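REVIEWER CHECKLIST
Item 1: Sequence provided? yes
Item 2: Single chain? yes
Item 3: Sequence as submitted:
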Amino acid sequence: MRIVGALGVALAGLSVIGAVTAYGQVDTRSQYGGATAAVVDDKGNLRVPADYRTAYQMLGSWAVAADDGPGSKEMHVVYASPGTIVAYRKDGHFPDGAVLVKEVFKTTTKNMTTGTVSSAGALAGWFVMVKDNVGRFPGSKLWGNGWGWAWFEATDPQKTTSTDYTTDCQSCHVPARESDWIYTHGYPVLTR
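Item 4: Structure as written out by the authors:
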């Protein structure tokens, strides 16, 4: 009886470990299930996920230099959907269904004791990308080259102002073409 009871406890423990492990992983091979379903509808329309600041991982940030004078004119803070960073570190590729959300802030620049400092000011909007390895929306002008692409003004995270990814979005990513259109060198977390 003790062996059966111990075996039962061991099996129950393994079940709990398996459930916790499965819960902590994201199945990015699904037809945009899980976190991605909150970003893409069945027609391929994208939107900004409501919980990206708490549910996603911070990928990194960028400062865009001011055109004239010291400081920055914009600050970009980029988040990746759960599981994206681990998957990328595993094989050097963004997994199907991965979501990247870039917040774009206007900045305020002032002199501080540490020097001239730019910090995030008013939110200008979001840029959202969804990895698509199979070409799910071939008729959409917001999907192509392995991604869904969309810009959203700060006033409306549900409706993109992008009409064609090749002219509205991709042109800024041409220098990153060889790294799957993403400036991966700016995200140390992908390689550490």
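Item 5: Key structural point noted by reviewer: Residues 28-190 form a domain with the Chalcone isomerase fold (CATH 3.50.70.20).
Item 6: Recommendation: ____
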